[in-house]
Specification:
The protein is 54% helix and 14% strand. It is α+β, with helices and mostly antiparallel strands and 154 residues long. Strands 3-2-1-4 form a four-stranded mixed beta sheet, sandwiched between helices.
Length: 154
């Protein structure tokens, strides 16, 4: 499979001046370095995956697959393989263990000392983990919400 898709806030037009432009590149490993360098130099935040990695993620019920299925804008798609793959992926709600892992991580962050050196890192990490937690909690209620507006409205 050789496919390229935009995803994230730019793809759903919820980006702001601080947003990055996410790009998924699905290709054999032999092409990864060249394509990573090419698109990174064009300003994209590149996620490189193989077809087998996508299949594994779906088998494990990755919400990222559902995020791509709903919001990705496919730019290049060799024989429509990515589109057909995403269309075939059923939603699998996250397991309780996923929710508990997020809660445990949030509790751990709260135990870290408040120092000038660590507070910025803690804030960024807490934002990411909290967003992940909210996405998973909503998914447990069969609500797929990935962007800020989705989460806020849900």
């Amino acid at each position: 499979m050789y496919s390229i898709a935009k995803f994230g806030s730019t793809a759903i037009q919820e980006n702001d001046v601080y947003s990055d432009s996410d790009l998924l590149v699905v290709c054999p490993s032999i092409h990864r370095n060249k394509l990573h360098d090419k698109y990174t130099n064009q300003g994209y935040s590149v996620t490189l995956l193989s077809q087998s990695q996508l299949e594994y993620m779906q088998k494990k019920g990755s919400l990222f697959i559902q995020h791509l299925k709903r919001d990705a804008k496919i730019i290049v798609d060799d024989d429509c393989k990515l589109k057909r793959f995403l269309d075939s992926c059923d939603f699998v709600p996250p397991a309780n263990a996923e929710i508990h892992r997020c809660e445990s991580t949030i509790r751990y962050i709260a135990t870290l000392p408040n120092t000038s050196a660590s507070n910025a890192w803690k804030a960024d990490f807490l934002y990411c983990v909290s967003r992940d937690y909210l996405v998973k909690r909503l998914a447990r209620k069969n609500i797929l919400a990935f962007g800020f507006n989705d989460i806020f409205c849900s």
